[in-house]
Amino acid sequence: MGKGEVSMARVAIVGVGAIGGAISSLLQLAGGHEITLCTRRPLRQLTVAMPSGSVRVEASNIAAPERAGPVDWVVVATKAYDAESAARWFPALCAQGAPVAVAQNGVEQRERFAPWVDLARLLPVIVDCPAERPADGEVRMRGAAQMSVEDTPLGHDFAALFAGSPVKMKLVADFVTAAWWKLCLNAVGALNALTLKPAGLLRDEAMGRLALAIVAECVAVGRAEGAQLSDSLGEEFLAHYRAGPPDSVNSLLADRLAGRRMETSARNGAIVRKGEKHGIPTPLNRMAITLLDAQQP
Ligand SMILES: NC(=O)c1ccc[n+]([C@@H]2O[C@H](COP(=O)([O-])OP(=O)(O)OC[C@H]3O[C@@H](n4cnc5c(N)ncnc54)[C@H](OP(=O)(O)O)[C@@H]3O)[C@@H](O)[C@H]2O)c1
Question: Is the CB of 262 under 6 A from ligand 1?
């Protein structure tokens, strides 16, 4: 294959919500792929509003795993708590050995899918792309998309699928650090979900101190897991949230406001679980998930 040339691939997206929709549109813009949307309900069409304009995704849709056939790549973009049902698609989709990219938040993508996928074929993907799904088949990307994957042959193969699309693809040598960095950033979001208040909440001094303490727990646990995280991370994130729009709603808060299940376990719950493993106390993150889980629908 020549430099810059993209080979066509059969790609199945399992879970076509905000991120599954965004990834589908990026694949379409890369061009030449055969895209299959694997959903729980039939999807009549998929339109993605990107900052640069709208993309209508040309794809086939199947709404039952037993109707699926083999593909070259599977991208899982369900919420983390739907891993088990997402895995029901794998026997058919991966019948010819397709690798599985897991586009889900957190640091446990491998543990989460280990029961169903050979780890050599599993690729965790960190997605940075503010996106929402106002209705079935309609996705809105509110900003530029970036994805980070390990700098490995599998990571390169995945990145090649998106060549020519507007996604910024990062191949990272230290994926553990990248994943914990993102988890530290996301951990703060529990405060917004608990108080039902958007990002402006963190401008309050006492709330800011709480955010710093939540991040400090995550930094301590992440370091024990091998991540390189600086002492100033909490301050950096707090400054970032304070400088951003005060009405910005993170996905944990958005899910709670919409009466949807929250991804507490994959986020603050992961900090608590990994903390236990290393004997590192995480009382604030534990309190956050306990209180939020009491609010789960
Ligand atoms: N949204 C963001 O801005 C953003 C940014 C970065 C990372 N992330 C992460 O990306 C992941 C996906 O989040 P999201 O916001 O895209 O969630 P979402 O909008 O709720 O989409 C998840 C989709 O998965 C579908 N699904 C669940 N189980 C399924 C199954 N067994 N088979 C087929 N489809 C299934 C859901 O179907 P139903 O329609 O039936 O519910 C839904 O359409 C999460 O880990 C999230 O933390 C999100």
Answer: no
- Which residue has a Cα nearest atom 38 of ligand 1? 40
Tell me the whole-structure pTM to 2 decimals. Answer: 0.96
- Over residues 142-185, the pLDDT tens digits come to 899 999 999 999 999 999 999 999 999 999 999 999 999 999 99
Rounded Cα distance between 81 and 85, Å, is: 9
pLDDT digits (tens, 9 = 90+) for 191-239: 999 999 999 999 999 999 999 999 999 999 999 999 999 999 999 999 9
Tell me, in angstroms, the distance from the centre of ligand 1 to residue 77's CA. Answer: 5
What would the pLDDT profile of 234-263 be if each residue is shown by its tens digit? 999 999 999 999 999 998 999 999 999 999
Three-state DSSP class for residue 295: coil
CA of 19 to the centre of ligand 1 (A): 6
Q: Which of 41, 248, 251, 256 to mutate to test the pocket of ligand 1 (most atoms within 8 A of CB)?
A: 251
The atom number, within ligand 1, closest to the CA of 142 reads 3
DSSP letter string over 26-77?
Answer: HHHHH-S-EEEEE-SS--S--EEEETTEEEE---EEE-SGGG----SEEEE-
The candidate with the shortest Cα–Cα distance to 158, out of 90, 34, 72, 32, is 72
**Distance set, CA 132 to CA 52, 84, 136 (Å):** 16, 23, 11
DSSP 256: H
Residue position matching structure tokens 């990062």: 170
Q: Residue 6 belongs to what H/E stretch?
A: none
Tell me the two tokens of residue 289: 């998930």
Radius of gyration, CA atoms only, the chain: 19
Reply yes or no on whether the pLDDT at 5 is more than 80: no
For atom 45 of ligand 1, the residue with the nearest CA is 104
